[in-house]
Amino acid sequence: MGSTTDDRAAFFDGLAAEFLQHYRTGARFVAVTGVAAADLPAAADAFAAALRTTGQPVERLHVAAGRGADELRAEVVAPFRSRSPEGVLVVDGPGLLGDALRGFWNFSVWTEHDPERDADWSFVSTGRKDPLGAPREVASVLVDDADPEHPRRLFADSC
What we know:
about 35% helix; about 20% strand
C-alpha cells in the first residue's frame, strides 16, 4: 500500500473521476456537508484539489449555517455562473442538503466521522433506521473521514 498521502489523494481522485463522468462541462456545483464532527473543509479542499489535477477550473467556498436558498442563489450561484461558465464550485458547510438547498447541487458528498464504525457496518447489516434521514439519503457519495489519511466510501443502500 502507498503512503497515507497517496491513499487520500487516490480516494479523492476517484471521486473526482466519478463526478466528471457525469458532469463534464458547464458551471457545476458540488456540496460537501455532513455530521458536525466531520472535517468538511478538509474534504472539500481534497475534492477541489483532485478536480484541479484534471485541469478543471475550481473555486472553493465555505457557507455558514443558516444560509437561505434565495441568499445562496443571489450571492453564490448567480455570480459563479457569470464569472466561471465552465468551472466547478466546491462548497462546504452544514445543512447544504436540507430541503431548500438540495436543488442547487449537481453532486454532493456527505461526510461522516465515526471512529468506532466497523468496516462492514451498514444500516442493512445492523437493521437500524438511518437517524440522519433525508440529507444522507440524497447525497451522491457517502464518505467516512474517521481516519483522515484513509477516507473510505460508505454504501448505505439496501440493494
